[in-house]
Design brief:
Distance between the termini of chain B: 21 Å
Number of helices of chain A: 4
Strand order of the largest sheet of chain A: 2-1-3-4-5
Chains: A alpha/beta (about 180), B alpha/beta (about 425), C alpha/beta (about 325)
Largest interface: B-C, 27 and 35 residues
Shape of chain A: globular
Order of helices and strands of chain A: HEHEHEHEEEE
Radius of gyration of chain B: 21 Å
CATH topology of the largest domain in chain B: TIM Barrel
Number of domains of chain A: 1
Oligomer: heterotrimer
Distance between the termini of chain A: 22 Å
Radius of gyration of chain A: 16 Å
Largest sheet of chain B: 8 strands, mixed
Structural class of chain B: alpha/beta
Number of strands of chain A: 7
Number of helices of chain B: 13
CATH topology of chain A: Rossmann fold
CATH class of chain A: Alpha Beta
Largest sheet of chain A: 5 strands, parallel
């Protein structure tokens, strides 16, 4: 499926959560996954995960992941000292995980997240869920379920603000911005 | 050779002279100042317009490193550096290898310097054999071989009785004794000025009293034995006061300060730069001011280079284990000119401190442009901008914080015995 | 003479890249409150790692860190090694024995030999004050130098872990009164602690020791001197006890351990002079019955054991920040 034409238009978040919840439920059923463990990537992914949990009316455990120590641009940006530590209050060994983030673009954040998850143990599977899937992949990574595909102008980025209400904001990309996403 | 030096600003403190005039030389001596003498036909004229003409400087303490390890320097390199720095004569320290404690070694040094034909050398002999502080050296023999003074440098004399005997014996020959005042037990293992900075940096300190105690003791012995004494390389403001009081009492003493202590303080140690590891140590800002004041009012009658060239490896070590000393012959002039500019002394006094006063305290007929005196003089361009580096420097020692730094003021020509032995072209 | 601040060799300028990042960690001197706080915040994120199953992060994977210890220290070296390994770095331990006469030459030769191995970072402990600065000025620009203690000059990583401990247990530095007790004269830790406390904004730094163990003019670093312990620790929020080395008795600095303990040892009774919620710290290893009573060392106010854990996180922070700064500078060239 192709991307929507380049646009400045940003969708409302709430309906996207609704449709994403439906897609995820259907995906998990198809694959016979009944008791997954949720992992949200700080900070946007955690908000999305909590919203999904509420919408789907499930109480699956939710862990949070901060990928700062696994990024591949350490030499360019150095460390961000305001790192909140990752917190996975469960064992991942042989479990089905659902990894949730707000925006998927280059794929580097997900690469870092998966490396970190594997340092905790060997999961049975990882299902990737993102609210938005933007064009601009630099790695061969795709979401299993996403709310909406978008193509943005080269100088614009999307940021999710929250936790209540959850809203997308358009951000102008500075000239030498570092690209974590 | 008959030479006329024309139109330079002639500064000669011995004659209280500071004016644009001519200098005429004949057969290696000063013939006359001013108008050309009757019947004098110059074979060579030097145009000294815009330049200062003054007596060649005399350094009171210089290490030529020969005899000794050649990688640190030798007579050829260091006397060449001396000329480039405006020093037509340099006093040679006795801590060569072997030390200058026998007439034979002194003669070797003199002969080598004469062969090299650059700056002239004035050997300073060892006060004790081997500088060990126990046995008298052959003082009369050393004097006969050409030593202008005796010293034990910073090597301790065993005890005060031996020191007294050394001084009494030296007095027999009316020899000048040069002291580098330092109490070795108070110095201990220290190498930095004892104070809050050395405490902060964790560097072993040498208290002020290491110098002032020694000065006090020596002054009393000077009084007792009647020798002529010169105190070299003072580092504390207190010592300057001690010297002033002793001079006022009429004691036959003089004192000098090394260039580095007029320019730097202990603050330079903050970066642990071993170029600033010196003996005696760089002390506080108050001490530096006291030394500058002493220079200004004449308590410190002379400035010495303290020249101690080292190979690079000697300084490539943590501060405390680096070798102390700075290479300085070639930067004395520009840095003294800076002090003149800052108002610490007049140009005439600068020449006095670097040429006339050393000659007077050494009791040599030098340091002045008087008729009949040896034609040892220099031409200086006070405005010349230059950089001390591999192309312009002659000393084997690059251990100076002024390496690759811009300097203002440079020696253009140096004449020794009426011969041009250094010329900037 | 150029101003010290413009001097490229000034401690501040040697340690920082042109945009203010850490590239060597040699002394607290010249580092800003912002930078010190950044170190503490970074250490905080590493500190929480130990509680989870993942003990390693790949930040320094592929980097080689050499422990260059010219002075013996199993404990400090072990924490640096652990910190490096938790960052996934490769660690090489070199114990150098130097002859006292040839120290300088051996150091230069040693450095040149090791540089040929393409190390990315040296952690250096040396008996000469200023050794870490010297090494930093000599190695090719690619290598980050971490000072693990040089002579009597500085021990900045220890000071930072002490600051981390204080922040963790006291919440911050504003209004804080800290007493450092013991052999200040020979202590590089104390010098770094005084600087760090003042930079981070502690209200009062007090030094408590007999005159023979106080360095001349040390007050000028920003501290008040006390020779009576009861006065020195009155109402303080933190008491840091320093180790007393046995050699001090032979150096004519102290008459006996017993007298030292009686006057300056931290006993339960002495501790009562401090604020009721004061914490007790010690860089270790402790000498029970010499500078500190067992009951206090093992008591509820003591955070001495926690200091060890914080030490690993602090060193991880310093090492990763310095490596990041070095790599950043390398990329600019």
């Amino acid at each position: 499926m192709g991307y929507q034409k380049e646009t400045d238009f940003l969708p409302e978040v709430a309906p996207l959560i609704d449709s994403l919840a439906v897609k995820l439920t259907s995906y998990l059923n198809e694959h016979g996954i009944t008791q997954p463990l949720l992992i949200g990537i700080h900070t946007g992914g955690v908000w999305v995960a909590e919203a999904l949990r509420q919408k789907m009316q499930v109480n699956w455990p939710l862990g949070t992941l901060d990928i700062a120590f696994y990024r591949d641009d350490f030499s360019k940006t150095g460390l961000n000292p305001s790192v909140k530590p990752s917190n996975l209050p469960f064992s991942t060994e042989n479990q089905h995980l659902v990894l949730i983030d707000d925006v998927l673009m280059s794929g580097r954040t997900i690469r870092a997240a998966m490396n970190e998850i594997f340092d905790y143990g060997r999961p049975a599977s990882i299902t990737l869920v993102t609210l938005l899937s933007l064009s601009g992949r630099e790695l061969p990574i795709q979401a299993d379920c996403y709310g909406l595909q978008l193509e943005l102008p080269a100088n614009k980025r999307v940021k999710l603000s929250g936790p209540d209400p959850l809203e997308f904001n358009l951000v102008i990309r500075p000239v030498d911005a570092e690209e974590p996403v | 050779m008959r030479i006329s030096i024309l139109g330079g600003r002639v500064i000669d403190p011995a004659q209280q002279l500071d004016q644009i005039t001519d200098v005429h030389l004949q057969e290696g001596q000063i013939l006359a100042l001013g108008d050309c003498p009757k019947g004098f036909q110059a074979e060579q004229t030097i145009n000294a317009g815009g330049l200062i003409v003054c007596p060649g400087f005399i350094d009171l303490c210089c290490h030529l490193r020969e005899p000794g390890p050649s990688y640190k320097g030798n007579i050829a390199s260091e006397t060449q550096a001396a000329l480039a720095g405006g020093f037509t004569q340099v006093c040679v320290r006795p801590d060569t290898q072997p030390p200058l404690d026998s007439p034979a070694v002194v003669r070797v040094v003199k002969e080598k310097a004469e062969l090299v034909g650059k700056a002239k050398v004035l050997p300073v002999g060892a006060l004790t054999q081997g500088l060990d502080g126990q046995l008298l050296s052959n003082m009369s023999g050393l004097q006969g071989a050409g030593c202008v003074a005796l010293t034990n440098l910073r090597h301790p004399v065993q005890d005060n009785l031996i020191l007294r005997r050394c001084l009494e014996y030296a007095a027999t020959f009316d020899l000048l004794v040069v002291f580098y005042p330092e109490d070795s037990s108070l110095k201990g293992l220290g190498f930095a000025h004892e104070g809050s900075l050395s405490s902060q940096l964790g560097l072993e300190g040498i208290p002020e009293t290491a110098e002032t105690l020694a000065v006090a003791q020596i002054l009393l012995l000077v009084e007792q034995t009647g020798i002529r004494a010169h105190f070299a390389h003072l580092s504390t403001a207190k010592a300057v006061t001690q010297i002033a009081e002793a001079k006022a009492k009429g004691l036959p003493i003089t004192a000098d300060v090394a260039l580095s202590h007029l320019l730097f303080t202990e603050a330079c140690l903050e970066s642990f730069d071993s170029n600033f590891h010196l003996e005696p140590p760089l002390r506080s800002a108050t001490d530096r001011l006291g030394l500058l004041q002493g220079l200004k009012d004449g308590t410190l009658s002379a400035v010495s280079s303290g020249h101690l060239p080292h190979e690079a490896a000697a300084k490539m070590a943590p501060f405390s284990v680096s070798e102390p000393g700075m290479s300085s012959l070639e930067v004395v002039l520009p840095k003294m000119l800076t002090l003149v500019e800052e108002g610490w002394l007049s140009l005439t006094d600068m020449v006095r401190r670097l040429a006339l006063a050393p000659a007077e305290l050494l009791r040599i007929k030098s340091g002045a442009l008087l008729p009949g005196y040896s034609a040892d003089l220099i031409l200086i361009d006070p405005k010349a901008s230059w950089i001390l580096n591999n192309q312009t420097g002659f000393s084997a020692g690059k251990n100076t914080p002024f390496w690759n730094q811009p300097l203002k003021g440079r020696v253009v020509t140096s004449l020794v015995n009426g011969e041009i032995r250094y010329n900037l072209k | 003479m150029s101003s010290a601040l413009n001097n490229p060799a000034h401690p501040r300028n040697v340690q920082l890249t042109s945009d203010g990042r850490l590239k060597h960690f040699l002394s607290i001197n010249g580092l800003s409150k912002t930078l010190l706080t950044e170190i503490l915040d970074t250490a905080e994120s590493f500190a929480n790692m130990g509680e989870q199953s993942v003990k390693k992060v790949p930040l320094l994977r592929g980097k080689t860190i050499v422990n260059l210890f010219f002075e013996n220290s199993t404990r400090t070296r072990a924490t640096f090694e652990l910190a490096a390994k938790r960052l996934s770095a490769d660690v090489l331990n070199l114990d150098i024995k130097t002859s006292s006469t040839a120290k300088g030459e051996t150091l230069m030769d040693t450095l040149q030999n090791i540089e040929a191995m393409y190390a990315d970072m040296f952690v250096v402990r040396h008996a000469d004050s200023g050794a870490a600065h010297f090494i930093a000025s000599q190695v090719t620009p690619r290598v980050a130098i971490i000072n693990a203690g040089d002579g009597r000059h500085a021990h900045p990583t220890q000071a930072m872990l002490d600051m981390f401990t204080i922040r963790k247990h006291k919440g911050g530095f504003e209004g804080l009164k800290v007493a450092i007790v013991g052999d200040i004269l020979h202590s590089r830790v104390a010098r770094s602690q005084i600087r760090a406390l003042n930079t981070l904004g502690a209200e009062e730094v007090r030094l408590v020791a007999p005159k023979t163990l106080l360095p001349i003019g040390i007050e000028e670093m920003g501290a008040k001197i006390y020779t009576r312990m009861e006065d020195g620790i009155r109402d303080v929020d933190v008491v840091i006890m320093l180790r007393l080395q046995k050699e001090r008795m032979s150096g004519a600095l102290l008459p006996s351990e017993a007298e030292f303990y009686r006057l300056y040892g931290l006993t339960t009774e002495k501790l009562s002079y401090a604020h009721p919620e004061a914490i007790v710290m010690h860089p270790g290893p402790i000498n029970r019955g010499v500078e500190i009573e067992s009951a206090v060392a093992d008591g509820s106010r003591s955070v001495i054991l926690q200091q060890v854990g914080y030490g690993i996180a602090t060193r991880m922070a310093v090492m990763s920040m310095a490596m990041s700064g070095q790599m950043h500078e390398r990329a600019q060239i």
